[in-house]
Amino acid sequence: MLEVGSPEFRCYFREHCRNSGPKIVALFETRISGRAAAKIVRRLGFRNSFRVEAHGFSCGIWILWEDEVFVEFLSISNQLIHGRFKQANDSRWLFFTAVYASPQIDKRKHLWRRLMELDLGDKNAWPWILGGDFNSILRPDKRSGG
Description:
Elements: H1 7-20, E1 24-28, H2 34-44, E2 48-52, E3 61-65, E4 69-76, E5 80-87, E6 94-100, H3 105-116, E7 128-133
Parallel strand pairs: 6-7
Antiparallel strand pairs: 1-3, 2-3, 4-5, 5-6
């Protein structure tokens, strides 16, 4: 895994953005906060950002977006950022939830309860994008480390 502050990550990220042209991006497990994070965000080339700061050298969620995207944040915690976005020329909102789940099971249980309580408006009206690192494994043989 590339560290978000490394020159290699910056090069890879910019190349990916040139090729796919995303208007909004979520980065997880950034492990960087404060002024260092603000400096890196500026270098990544997006004009707007919101961050859930890292705790020491763990966690961290960043949302980066372009000016032509409207973003509204609806719920924020140390494990998730939930909101909705739309492009300037579109009336349709898309809900998004960016998750970086705690490796501690009790905290992760709190996250799952919170996810079930999220406001998605009329659940049949708008798409919902949910992604991130849930720190969960499907099978014991897929476990690495700890």
